[in-house]
Amino acid sequence: SDKLQSTENRISTGLQVSSSKDNAAVWAIAQNQRSDIGSLSSVKMSLNRATSISDVSLAAGQTVSDLLVILREKIVAAMDTSQSAQSRTALDTDFKSILKQITQVLQNATFDNTNILDGTNTSVKFLSNADASTFITLQGQDMTLGGTIITLTALTAITTATLAGAALTQLDASMNNVNLAMATLGSDSRQIDAHSKFVTKLSDALELGVGHLVDADMARESAHLQALQVQQQLGAQSLSIANQSPQIVLSLFK
C-alpha cells in the first residue's frame, strides 16, 4: 500500500522528487536551479526592453539620416548662384522645416520613457546574468541639432550661396557623425540580440536539467502502478482464501 501510494503521487505530480522528504540532496539542487531560472526570466525581460529601445532608436536614426540626405539636396540647390531671391527663400523655408522634422523624430524616439538619441541618456544598462552582477550597455547617441553629432542648428540658414556653402560643410560632417553613431547602435543591438538568444538557451537547458533530476518516468511509473495494483488484488484474494480455511477445517469435525 505504501509503494502504491508513492507511485500514485509520482504519477499525479509528474515528479519523482516533489519534496525534500523524497530526496533531500536532489530537491535542494533542483530548488537552486529553479531560482536561477526565475532570475533569468527577469534578465530576458530586461533584454527584451533593451531590444525594443534599440529598435526604436535605429528606426529614428535611419529617418534622421534620410532627412540629412534631403537637406543636402536643398543646400546644393541653394549654392546655385543663378537662384533668385524668391527661390532661395523657398529653399531656406524647406531647409528649416526639415530641421524641425529632425527634432520631432528625435523627441519621439522613446520607448518606456527612455530616449537615447535626444541627449537625456548617455548610456542605459540592462541585466545580463541571474546574479545582476554584470550588465549590457546601450550607448546613447546625442543627435540633437547643434550637438556633437549634428552640428547644424535650427538657426542655420541657406539664404545666400556663402551661407549654403558653410552649411554644406557642417552637413557633410554631420552625416559622417550620424553614420558612425548608427554603426555603434547597430553593434550594440546585435550584441543584445545575441545575448538574449543565449539567455533563452541557458534557461531552457536549466529547465531540462531540473527535469532530469526530479521528473518521473511516466511510462515506468505507469507500469509499476499496474504491477502494484495486481499485487494488491492478489494479496486481497490470498487473505480471503486464508480467512476461509478455518471454516473448512471446522466443517471436517462435523
What's this, in brief?
71% of the residues lie in helices and 4% in strands. The chain is mainly alpha-helical and 254 residues long.
Task: Please describe what this structure looks like.
- The chain has five helices and two strands.
- The chain is mostly helical and 254 residues long.
- Strand 1 and strand 2 (135-139) form a beta hairpin.
- Helix 1 (2-13) packs antiparallel against helix 5 (218-253) and helix 2 (24-78) packs antiparallel against helix 4.
- The radius of gyration is 37 Å and the shape is rod-shaped.
- The two termini are 39 Å apart.
- 23% of the residues are buried.
- The model has no long low-confidence stretch (mean pLDDT 87).
Question: Notable features of this structure?
Answer:
single chain; 254 residues; mainly alpha; two-stranded antiparallel sheet; 2 strands; 4% strand
